[in-house]
Design goal:
Strand content: over 45%
Distance between the termini: 61 Å
Number of helices: 7
Number of strands: 60
Helix content: under 10%
Largest sheet: 22 strands, antiparallel, barrel
Shape: globular
């Protein structure tokens, strides 16, 4: 069975003329900066002097309403002084900025940070009345206090509506990915210091900073400005630390001991036993997995030239050692492994003048894996003899960026950012033996031929990869910000180029691998539509056992070019009303292995962004806000490697009369030719025929309405309504005969070599085909002719929160989200079957696969309750906690098609039918996911509180809820799959982290 899993910028001048006018409200280019603004009493001053701890000094004028604003300020600590006739008449000290936030520093009555952190003697909890978006900002100080796993995604889980992904997906350095607002885990965007670090091949995660180098992390969950794009999930934006006028250095040692880690929960067969069980009902002895982790990190930062040139450098090294006992069918039964994670970060800041700043960033985050494979006795649960060395793997990568900021005038700011990133995919087998053939599902071997004990071999490598395999990205941004009266206008370009180099793989050994299967109905044809008959009609087929020979080969280099332009006006209509009017235009071009464009989406992809903020009482105590926006998502590089590529993925079916000593079947009789349900026979399709004509990018519309209000002097509460509607998607369509039949009706003779076509699913599509004369023809199919339902993915949510800002003693926040994510598609991925081929999922391949597809999608969690905070008992002792209670996602049941349990398209047990009954997604649910993390820290007075010791316990109550259950109900019609309903992915067992740190 084949499971393929499967521009020129427009002038901005015209767009500028469409705005009502040309600011008092802050605007941020890719949110690497902050803003200071405020109100000055009449006749008390003409200008405001803003000076940072790194020597940057800006003087801005006060307008005739007594307002001033300074945008695009690097994060740091500032002194703000009110000037009259050039003399200081009042000053506010120690003003700290938050990324993407406006900090109000008014001289009547006092300064207050509208990002919810007090920066002066103001007891009123802060509300940012300049923000119309939905985001959470976590600072380095909060990261040091909260009990969090050391990843950008663990930080993102603090934000409301963000959940762990249900597919077990991981990013470039092994971090577990997250889902925003029900979207697929591939639909998010990652940034470091303004540079887009998202994985270009599948969109699954991105390069992130070493944990100790994060100054602030911004988590956008919706409503973001026209400056952001290429995401219809969320945005994780990290800003790294920088040097100041004082030298600081420090370091940490972190240890996760194996003895303090709870045992995992074993996995057992849940639906009968396979033909040749290895250890009775035991499938995967997770309780035998153990690991210990040690991390060292250090940093130093300070002035190379005071007030001019600053350096910050940090390095981190993590070493994880342990053993993994894999499931009984795995070719690597027991692995002793070592994972190394070398990371570094460096930033150079040069204040060329008060008006010109240059920032240079370098960062690296990599994961290196190696190990030793042993045999394993699953009956006695003991390690056996040496088998082989495991693959040597290197992932992650490096980036280098430069950002130039020029305050051309008090009103005009120019920024330019350029960077390059390289992500590794190195995977080379250890002591590879090419004479052996890879085997899978040996527990399904005929027990009459193996004595009831599965026969395997020592081939542990299924696929071979080019050692040069990697991805690259370069990104250029140019932004202009102009203030005129009550308007802040920003405009810019955002251009990105990506390449996938030598991606793909080929089979090990002789170029194929064997898959053992069996059926309880050997007299019934397996896949009639592909010419795969009934095993019983062939020698030895009456035994009901058969083997499939798989051949897979796909290695290619492809690229894409993504261009965007935007314009935005933040208009302070009155002292209480702020309007945000934005417009973004994206273009996408993708190229196949020959360098030919197979998608050119150059027509305008207009993405309007409209928002407002109403300071109801005029004192930042009550804000009502809302926004509406459209968000486009570019196609990842992945489709160029399959739907637009020349890959081979075929299967040939055999009966057999014996099993050789190396585990391969012998006495073979073929009962099919090499077949492919998706026509994947290694022919590079004509790039003009790969996609439907005028194919549009994936995009989503979002609507938000909310409020925030102070409660007394120490609390803030609020609520927000969100709706997201996926309007368009791109996926592959593999029902080639339907296209050929419609062509025949139009008088064309077509024999397509395409494996699948890229379409906008759920609507009419027009295909370009080549007839027998070599002429290009257009063939249109309505959605009814394609037999598809309309595309649907809808998400709605009600969020409520209650927050107690830090008052020197304690901080706490509780939020609750009620939400639904439903429709007939998850988006780019299929998490329930852990499909990783973004935008070429199993959905929409054939009409039969979309029958009964409407329901709750994989990342749907109806209830989410989160609470986190910390309490400073005294200057030496602090306690902290993080609680998450999330209702379970759908547990799906997939089987053969229809009441008669057939396989019309050769996909096996992948249809939305369960034992002959309709089985829409969301019919059943997994249990609640409950997590409690706790921490305690001690900073002794004898070390001036610079030395600290902490203990963190993660998953305190050792909940190991299933977050992904095996969905396949049958091996073949009438033959139950023994693993149906068993755990594919669970919560990580309880573990403990001990930390010693010193900061000077």
């Amino acid at each position: 069975m084949n499971r393929h899993f499967s521009v020129s910028p427009r002038p901005l001048a015209a767009a500028l003329t469409t705005l009502l006018a040309l600011g008092a409200a802050p605007v941020f280019a890719q949110s690497t900066t902050g803003s200071i603004f405020g109100q000055v009493p009449a006749n008390t001053g003409e200008s405001v002097l803003i000076k940072s701890s790194t020597g940057i000094s800006r003087t801005v004028n006060v307008d005739n309403r007594g307002r001033y604003s300074a945008t695009e300020l690097p994060l740091g600590t500032y002194t703000v002084s009110l000037l009259h006739d050039g003399n200081v008449v009042d000053t506010r000290n120690d003003i700290s900025l938050r990324v993407g936030s406006g900090t109000e520093v008014s001289f009547e009555p006092a300064a207050k940070n509208l990002g919810a952190v007090s920066v002066s003697a103001n007891t009123t909890p802060a509300i940012d009345v300049t923000a119309i978006d939905s985001r959470t900002v976590i600072t380095a100080d909060e990261l040091a206090r909260l009990p969090l796993a050391r990843s950008a995604e663990a930080i993102a889980l603090l934000a409301p509506g963000v959940t762990g992904n249900s597919g077990g997906y991981t990013g470039p350095t092994g971090q577990s990915l997250v889902s925003f607002g029900g979207s697929a885990a591939s639909e998010n965007a990652y940034y470091i210091n303004g540079f887009n670090t998202t994985d270009p091949q599948r969109g699954m995660g991105g390069l992130t900073l070493p944990y100790g180098s994060i100054e602030q992390q911004e988590i956008y969950t919706g409503g973001y400005s026209a400056q952001y794009g290429r995401s219809d999930g969320g945005v994780i934006n990290m800003v790294g630390k920088r040097g100041t006028n004082e030298w600081h250095f420090g370091g940490q040692v972190l240890w996760q001991p194996a003895f303090a880690q709870a045992d995992g929960t074993n996995t057992y067969y849940t639906n009968g036993l396979p033909a040749s069980p290895v250890a009775g009902g035991l499938y995967d002895p997770n309780s035998r997995n153990h690991q210990w982790v040690t991390t060292y990190d250090a940093y130093i930062g300070g002035p190379l030239i005071k007030d001019k040139l600053f350096l910050f450098v940090s390095a981190e090294a993590t070493k994880q050692e342990g053993n993994t006992v894999n499931d009984v069918s795995n070719a690597k039964p027991y692995v002793d492994y070592t994972y190394k994670s070398p990371k570094w970060y460096a930033k150079l800041d040069w204040n060329i003048t008060d008006s010109n700043i240059l920032e240079i960033t370098g960062a690296s985050n990599k994961l290196e894996k190696s190990g030793t494979i042993y045999d394993y006795d699953y009956t006695t649960l003991s390690r056996g003899s040496y088998v082989n060395q495991d693959d040597r793997i290197k992932t992650g990568g490096d980036l280098y960026t430069a950002k130039f900021t020029s305050y051309i005038t008090d009103a005009l700011t120019f920024t330019a950012t350029y960077g390059k990133m390289k992500l590794l995919n190195y995977d080379v087998p250890g002591n590879y033996d090419g004479s052996l053939t890879y085997l899978t599902y040996i527990a399904n071997q005929n027990p009459a031929l193996n004595g009831g004990i599965p026969i395997g071999n020592n081939q542990t490598t299924q696929s071979l990869f080019n050692p040069n395999r990697h991805n690259t990205t370069d990104n250029l941004r140019i932004d202009l910000t102009y203030q005129l009266g009550s308007h802040t206008i920003s405009a810019g370009i955002d251009n990105q180029n990506s390449r996938a180099i030598d991606q793909g793989s080929q089979n090990s050994g002789n170029g194929y691998y064997w898959d053992y299967e069996y059926t309880t109905t050997p007299g019934v044809a397996l896949i009639p539509s592909l010419g795969v008959g009934a095993p019983a009609n062939y020698p030895n087929g009456g035994s009901r056992y058969y083997a499939i020979q798989h051949v897979n080969n796909s290695i290619a280099s492809v690229r894409s070019a993504q261009r965007a332009q935007y314009i935005e006006d933040k208009w302070q209509v009155t002292d209480r009303w702020l309007l945000s009017l934005g417009l973004r235009n994206d273009q996408f071009t993708d190229y196949n292995a020959n360098g030919d464009a197979y998608i050119r989406q150059h027509s305008a992809q207009w993405a309007p962004r409209l928002g407002f903020s109403w300071d109801v009482n005029g004192d930042s105590s009550f804000k009502v806000y809302g926004n509406a926006g459209r968000y486009y998502l570019g196609l990842p590089l992945n489709p160029a490697l399959n739907a637009a590529g020349a890959y081979v993925s075929t299967q040939q079916y055999f009966t057999y009369s014996g099993i050789a000593a190396d585990g391969t079947p012998i006495g073979l009789t073929a009962f099919s030719k090499p077949v492919s349900s998706n026509n994947t026979y290694g022919v590079l399709p004509d790039p003009k025929t790969v996609t439907a004509q005028n194919i549009r990018p994936e995009y989503q519309d979002e609507f938000i309405l909310g409020f925030s209000k102070t409660l007394g002097t120490n609390w803030v509460y609020g609520a927000k309504l969100t709706q997201r509607i996926l309007r368009n998607a791109i996926d592959d369509y593999c029902d080639v005969p339907t296209i050929e039949n419609k062509a025949a009706q139009l008088g064309y003779t077509v024999s397509a070599t395409n494996s699948c076509y890229l379409i906008n699913p759920g609507r009419a599509n027009t295909f370009t085909v080549v007839d027998d004369t070599g002429a290009y023809r257009s063939v249109s199919l309505s959605n009814a002719e394609m037999s598809f339902p309309p595309l649907k993915r809808k998400y709605y949510a009600l969020e409520t929160f209650l927050e107690h800002p830090f008052d020197g003693h304690w901080y706490g926040k509780v939020d609750y989200v009620f939400s639904r994510s439903y429709g007939d598609t998850e988006g780019q991925l299929r998490s329930d079957i852990q499909q990783t081929a973004a935008s070429t999922s199993i959905d929409w391949d054939f009409p039969s696969l979309m029958v009964n597809s409407n329901g709750a999608q994989s990342n749907d969690h109806t209830h989410q309750l989160k609470a986190f905070g910390y309490y400073q008992i005294n200057p030496e002792w602090q306690v902290s906690g993080d609680i998450s209670l999330v209702s379970g996602n759908p547990r799906n049941c997939l089987g053969f098609y229809g009441p008669d349990q057939t396989d019309p398209n050769g996909y096996g047990s992948y249809y939305h039918w369960c034992g002959g009954q309709p089985s829409p997604p969301g019919t059943h649910r997994l249990p609640w996911i409950k997590t409690v993390d706790a921490g305690v820290a001690y900073s002794p007075a004898f070390a001036d509180h610079k030395l600290s010791f902490s203990l963190n316990v993660f998953n305190l109550f050792n909940s190991q809820t299933i977050v992904n259950a095996y969905p396949y109900y049958q091996i073949s019609p009438g033959t139950p799959d023994p693993l149906y309903g068993s755990a594919v992915d669970r919560q990580q067992p309880r573990y403990v982290r001990l930390t010693a740190s010193y900061d000077y």
